[in-house]
Amino acid sequence: MTRRRVLLTRSVAVALAVLALSPVAPAGRLPDKPKAQAPGPVIRLVYRALQPGEPIVVFLETDGAANSASVTFLGRTVDLRPAPGGRSVFAFLGIDLQAKPGSHTMTIKVRKADGTIETIRKELLVSEKKFPFTKLQLKREYVTPPAAALERIKREAELVALATSVVTPEWLGDGPFALPHDAPNWANFGQRRLNNNVLESVHTGLDIRAPFGESIRAANAGTVVLASDLYLGGKTVIVDHGLGVFSSYGHLSKLLVKRGEAVKKGAPVGLCGSTGRSTGPHLHWSVKILDVRVDPEAMLRLPLEK
Ligand SMILES: [Zn+2]
Asked: Of the candidates 73, 117, 178, 188, which lies 20 to 30 Å from 285 by C-alpha distance?
């Protein structure tokens, strides 16, 4: 008899997979006698698809029986922290664009109140995703930047990496993610780009066709960790939502927030523009979970409670 219980449901409306499982009995041990106590921790995974560029939220319901918990997947480990609603702890993970299709083990370690550690493993099948391909014509100085700009680009990349390297150990978000602007987008996350006939970049954000000068809103509540004019990204705002989740708004014509400022969901962070490496007014919106770029559109589908 197996103690493993897997429940898979599919909601067509949000196209999210929800998977719940109870822990597997440790190998080589007889199952405990049935006791009149709460069952082991229940894990719920929420995602749009198990593919490169997709976010995963891991929920753990412990009934107060756990002191702490962590999850490891694709080489990254993160702690689970209290989720809104008070019934569970949760963590965000992303499947990076270079992730190999196939089976990958997710390991959840639960440190219980009595000091013992329960380890739960789940195999997740990551499937391949084909991203679109395009050719772009850009100003030469953005494809082959002058030597003087290379130093600046390097310095700014370090600045962005530093700003997004600190994981705030609490969730700052306020319910589900929302669009920073209602204009249509090009659905171009992950697009492979041939810039002036040089295969140079993968587009790791989503471009939204917002008109020049219109307000760009924070996709969720958080703290501004960067508000700067970058060579490639142009005027850029990065918001830390906690638990390693960051959203970024690029090519702005004007910055409306400062580093360190707390922003509410929907608060204007800047005005739409075409600064930096851009072919015309639009918003470059990107989301990073730990060091993984994920499709911002998939973030909108995550059923996060207030
Ligand atoms: Zn873009």
From this structure: 73
